[in-house]
Amino acid sequence: MAVKTIITEPNKLLRQISKPVENVGKEEQQLMNDMLDTMYDANGIGLAAIQIGIPKRIIVMDIAKDEKKEPRYFVNPVIVNRDPIKKTHEEGCLSVPGYYEEVSRPTAVKVKALNEKGEAFEITAEGLLAVCIQHEMDHLNGKLFVDYIS
């Protein structure tokens, strides 16, 4: 496991659309472990692979507020349903350090993805988890939270 360098704006890689993962093998599992180490080291709650320069559709997150770690893994995530009701939350980003702004997003999302073992799962996320999933999935599509700000 290793802490990687997080790419910061402006950097063309952050605007790149990430490629789907064909197979979740040892290389992808090692990448996810490195991503978690990197995210924890930077005191973040989510990280997309592209933020460390790897254009794969992989995100990791941990929104646990206490000392107990509760990592989540999303490989090839797809939002299959969005709540029409939106709520505004303050967001920040490890790739846009020191900048925080209010962003309006759906309050809940239903997501299909693969976990760290390559097993399919589906989750309905609300609150901070929904915000984090949407924020990190934006990275996979070359979008940053600052793009929502006028």
Structure, explained:
By secondary structure, the protein is of the alpha+beta class. It has 2 helices and 7 strands. The strands form 2 sheets. The protein has a 5-stranded antiparallel sheet with strand order 1-2-3-6-7, with helices on both faces. A hairpin with a 5-residue loop joins strand 6 and strand 7. The longest helix is centred in the first third of the chain and has 16 residues, at 26-41. It is globular and about 40 Å long. The N and C termini lie far apart (39 Å).
Oligomer: single chain
Proportion of helical residues: 10-25%
> Major β-sheet, in short?
5 strands, antiparallel
Number of strands: 7
> pLDDT under 50 segments (min length 5)?
none
Strand content: 25-35%
How do the strands line up in the largest sheet?
Answer: 1-2-3-6-7
Order of helices and strands: HEEEEEEEH
Annotate the secondary structure layout.
Layout: H1 26-41, E1 46-48, E2 58-61, E3 72-82, E4 86-93, E5 96-106, E6 108-114, E7 120-126, H2 127-140
Antiparallel strand pairs: 1-2, 2-3, 3-6, 4-5, 6-7
What does this entry show, briefly?
The protein is of the alpha+beta class. It is built from two helices and seven strands.
Please describe the structure with a list of short key phrases separated by commas or semicolons.
two-stranded antiparallel sheet; 150 residues; five-stranded antiparallel sheet; alpha+beta; 2 helices
